[in-house]
Write a structure and sequence with these properties.
mainly beta; seven-stranded antiparallel sheet; two-stranded antiparallel sheet; 6% helix
């Protein structure tokens, strides 16, 4: 499983009330652009894949299964992982899956997963961003 990496701007956006992780619509999109933890802050800062071959630009919704804190440790757990099935000519290449807040006006970025090398899907291939149901996507303390 690829490790989650957070964008630096997410911390400031969270402190300034851009995100409500319990209720906002979070989405994951795919890209071959290398995310910049220190410089990228919003969806428009990274080039999403174009719609086609079973992929829709803007990505798929990541459903929150729990959002809570215990003893000062907040954990966001996402269920129903985003899945894409390629059709026609397929789609790609992409290397990164990026989590962002589709509800927020600025569509702020939370973080990304690096799959190590570019991936292209042929018709019938499926790609799933696998969320850890135990440790969650992210923790804050």
């Amino acid at each position: 499983m690829a490790a989650f990496n957070k964008f630096d701007a997410f911390v400031e956006q969270l402190a300034e009330k851009e995100h409500n992780l319990a209720t906002d619509t979070l989405k994951v999109f795919l890209t071959n652009d290398t995310p910049n933890a220190a410089g990228d802050a919003s969806y428009s800062d990274i080039t999403d894949l174009s719609t086609g071959g079973g992929y829709t630009a803007g990505g798929n919704t990541a459903t929150q299964s729990s959002s809570s804190q215990t003893g000062g440790l907040y954990k966001l757990v996402l269920g129903d992982p985003p899945t894409w099935t390629a059709s026609g000519a397929g789609f790609g290449p992409f290397r990164y899956a990026v989590l962002y807040n589709d509800t927020a006006a600025g569509k702020g970025l939370l973080g990304w997963w690096d799959y190590g090398s570019s991936i292209s899907l042929s018709a019938g291939d499926t790609f799933t961003v696998d969320f850890d149901p135990t440790t969650g996507v992210l923790t804050l303390q």
